Amino acid sequence: MSRPLLPLKAGAVTLTVLWTAWMMWWSGSFSSVNTIILALCGAAVGYLWYRAMRWQFERMGMLPRREHEE
Length: 70
Known about the structure:
The protein is an all-alpha fold.
């Protein structure tokens, strides 16, 4: 894991956990199907937030640009 991206990745994980917990509380249903669906949606939200923030921070020059990804 690259050091400049560590806070961004930690923020994405935090957003995923908080978003999933909030949606479970808001829906009021704790069935297994609902939990799985909300966990998958939470993971998608966290991943999309990470990609959007990384793109924006690279664009603003706050992160080094990607030379080549492996």
